[in-house]
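In this supplementary section we document a worked example of the pipeline. Step one takes a protein sequence of length 116 as its only input; no multiple sequence alignment statistics are reported here. Step two produces a three-dimensional model, which step three serialises into C-alpha cells for compact storage. The input and output of this example are shown verbatim.
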Amino acid sequence: MRYVDGYVLPMPKKNLKTYARMARMGAKMWMKHGALDYRECVGEDLEAKWGMPFPRMMKLKPGETVVFSWVVFKSRAHRDRVNAKVMKEMEKMGEMEMPFDVKRMVYGGFKVLVEG
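The serialised model returned by step three reads:
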C-alpha cells in the first residue's frame, strides 16, 4: 500500500512565483530520488459551503491563499529513504528563506486507506 506525505501551508499571494520556483526544484529532487508523484496545488475555490473552509482553518491573513501539496511513495520505509536523500541534497544547497510562515505549515505522513 502506498504512503503519502501531505502539506498545507499559508502562502502570501505576492510570493507565489517564488514558491513555484522552489516547488519545481523540490519536484525534481523528490522524483529524482524515487518519489512516485509530487503535487503542489494553490487554492482557488476556498469558500466551502460545508465543513471547515481552509481560510478559517489556516487563519489566513489578507493577501494569503493556501497551498495544498503531497508526495507519494511506495511505503513508509520508501518515504524515509527518499526523504533522507532529499534532505541531504538540500543541506548542500544551504539554508533558504521560505516565502511563507513555516510555523503555520501543517504536515503529516499518511498510509493510504483507499485508492481509486
